[in-house]
Specification:
The protein has 294 residues and is α+β, with helices and mostly antiparallel strands. It contains nine helices and ten strands. Catalyzes the condensation of 4-aminobenzoate (pABA) with 5-phospho-alpha-D-ribose 1-diphosphate (PRPP) to produce beta-ribofuranosylaminobenzene 5'-phosphate (beta-RFA-P).
Amino acid sequence: MVNPFIRGARRYISAGVAVSYPNNVVIVKEGSELRVEGCRSDEVFTRIKDFAVKHGLKGIIEIRECIPRHIGLGSTTQLVLAAGYGLALVNNHLIDPVEIAVETGLGKYSGVGTYVFKHGGFVVDMGRSESTAFPPLLTRLEFPEEWVFIIAIPSGSGLDEEREDRIFAEENWNIPVELTWKASYHLIELSSAVAERDFDSFVKALTALQETVGSMFSRYQGGVFSVNSARVIKLLRENGVEGVGQSSWGPAVYGVVKGLDEAEAILENLMPRLDGKVFITRPRNKGVEVVEEK
């Protein structure tokens, strides 16, 4: 996130990439009323009920698998969009995920989760001005599929929406504007490296961007990275991973390596030293997948 705090300039410009795992699995069937079952069902019902009423949508939503909340993987956005999109389809409505996001209260700060749901790949949004209704998509690129992510989720949790709202509502506390310029340049470097499939430039830009943006949030998370995330970042670096980052507020962190063999060797070294979950995943260059159940 390039400029989270300085008012009078465009804020919340964000970037992200879709990955193949972990996933939400949502089954939607025809029904005479709106009903949501399974994990996080109450939360999803609350999010989509007004959207469903507005469009006259009814059906049974079964959430078979869901990513936990507040671990830094954007699980709420993906889950709500999956439920809303599937509900629209069983009612023979094709509704753009951006419209669903707006009507269910998603994308308050970042549109990245919505755009990776819709398109997959690497996306950058334009953030918000005072008049922005939803962060517009700036660019979407194919992410090199041979590059592999190592994702670690240590114990603990990131911030909830209420705490996040309070932080972003605070008045600017003297963040140097030069930091936002620096972050903007690193984001251009990062995007260019993806487009040119230049791994070495990508990992350098990623780490530089993460450290620059993290310094803006250090007041709230105890350092450039959150306390729970910092230890895992250190372990990744000790194992030779140059491109590292914290996902959202954490505690999830990730490293990017050139190939599967390298990732598997690093994973073997990390697993005995972590008290949480660690796994390998690949980028996903397509958006939501809809399968008709027979």
